[in-house]
Amino acid sequence: MLELVVLISGGGSNLRALLEAARSADYPARVVAIGADRDADGLALGEEFGIPVFTVPYTAYADRAAWGEALIREIDVWTPGLVVLSGLMRLVPSAVVQRYTPRLWNTHPAYLPEFPGAHGVRDALAAGATRTGASLIVVDDSVDGGPIIAQERVPVYPGDTEAGLHDRIKPVERRLLIDAVRDYAEGRLTL
Strands 104-108 and 82-85, how do they pair? Predict the structure, then answer.
């Protein structure tokens, strides 16, 4: 059984999908801990699903490197086979990347390398793109530039709003994550 630590900053919609997939007896992975960089709404999923949670508030540390070392200490408690950044809205320090990559994955609401960064959906709309997508990548020291694990295109419709387009991307992002975790756990995906 592949054990995961999932890191979030917000509501945890991708995390919820992963937790629901893991309820199935034939799903070969389970989330052993949920972490956040702030008091995130998604931490409530820990109680709902009986999963331990931890918070490593970025603002509690002198700098990014100190925060990263604290994050490593918390993650290492769980000895995960995979660490998933699912809506963690902060770049992890190089020490975190070095510790876990290629077992450090990130979901992103764009078809990378198009529209990297924190506002992929907004940037796609601003650029007048007719299609964008969802991506799952291995985290490296770049901003959303790591090796692509899986991705899929999503059309942009005339009149799309940022919220509406994001709502159409999210289910694709969730499916890519759930399928790739399964494939990795069952040995069909190597990194």
Answer: parallel
* C-alpha closest to that of 152 among 129, 130, 136, 128: 136
- Whole-number CA gyration radius for the chain: 16
Any known ligand binding at 14?
yes
10-residue stretch averages of pLDDT, the chain, 191 residues long: 96 95 97 96 96 96 96 98 94 97 97 96 97 98 96 97 97 98 96 85
Identity of residue 89: M
* Relative orientation angle of helices 162-185 and 13-22, to the nearest 10 degrees: 30
Q: Tell me if 16 sits within 8 A of 44, measured CB to CB.
A: no
Q: Is 13 annotated as a binding residue?
A: yes
The answer on whether 174 is annotated among ligand-binding residues is no
154 is in an annotated binding site: no
Nearest to 9 by CA among 106, 135, 128: 106
**Prediction pTM value:** 0.95
Question: Pick the catalytic residue: 30, 99, 108, 174?
Answer: 108
Q: Where are the beta strands (DSSP E) in the chain?
A: 2-8, 29-36, 53-55, 82-85, 104-108, 131-138, 148-155
Tell me if residue 108 is catalytic: yes
Alpha helices in 101-188 (DSSP H): 120-126, 162-185
Q: How many CA atoms lie within 13 A of 111 on its CB side?
A: 12
CATH of domain 2-186: 3.40.50.170
